[in-house]
């Protein structure tokens, strides 16, 4: 733990993490559940800093069956996924609470939408700087460097923090 920045709260058997436990990763993702031989094993939940969670059955560190729930309560279902599938383009909050009056658009699931710093993109889990290719979470902590594929996807699909009409666009 000393080298990884992780924290473990739980029992040990023969020097290995085992039993009911909490495991906090340096990214502030937290696992709560069963451990065996130093790995996630049995029922356990990963809680992510953005408020989402993954409830799963684990075998030797790998999830074999699970359910992902977004922070707003929307559950991902691989077989029956109907959210933003082309037939129904409403945001989940619009499905739950109804549409806004005519002429008032909702541009994200979060209403009002998060303010994006000028020159950045909102890529869903943080802000992306296309010049440095760094993604930082919404609290300005480093998440990752974007590879070429992610960079192109963000540039093509994500909300920008500037008005293209005015022309304030970062140089790429």
Automatic annotation (TrEMBL):
Q: What is its main location?
A: other
The places in or outside the cell where this protein is found are: Cell projection, Cilium, Flagellum
User: Has keyword Lipoprotein?
Assistant: no
> GO terms for CC?
motile cilium
Matching entries from Pfam families are given as: MORN
Q: Does the keyword Repeat apply?
A: yes
Which keywords fit this entry according to its UniProt record? Cell projection, Cilium, Flagellum, Repeat
- Coiled-coil boundaries: none
Q: Which SMART domains match?
A: MORN
Q: What is this protein called?
A: MORN repeat-containing protein 5
Q: Give the originating organism.
A: Acinonyx jubatus (Cheetah)
Q: Which gene encodes it?
A: MORN5
């Amino acid at each position: 733990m000393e080298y990884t920045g992780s924290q473990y709260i739980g029992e040990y058997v023969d020097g290995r993490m085992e039993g009911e436990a909490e495991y906090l990763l340096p990214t502030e993702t937290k696992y709560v559940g069963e451990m065996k031989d130093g790995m996630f094993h049995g029922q356990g939940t990963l809680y992510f800093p953005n408020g989402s969670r993954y409830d799963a059955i684990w075998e030797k560190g790998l999830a074999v069956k699970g359910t992902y729930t977004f922070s707003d309560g929307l559950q991902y279902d691989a077989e029956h996924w109907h959210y933003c599938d082309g037939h129904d383009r409403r945001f989940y909050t619009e499905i739950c609470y109804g549409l806004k009056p005519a002429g008032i658009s909702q541009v994200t699931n979060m209403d009002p939408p998060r303010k994006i710093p000028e020159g950045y993109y909102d890529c869903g889990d943080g802000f992306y700087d296309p010049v440095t290719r760094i993604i930082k979470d919404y609290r300005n902590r480093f998440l990752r460097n974007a590879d070429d594929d992610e960079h192109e996807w963000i540039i093509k699909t994500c909300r920008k923090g500037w008005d293209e009409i005015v022309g304030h666009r970062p140089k790429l």
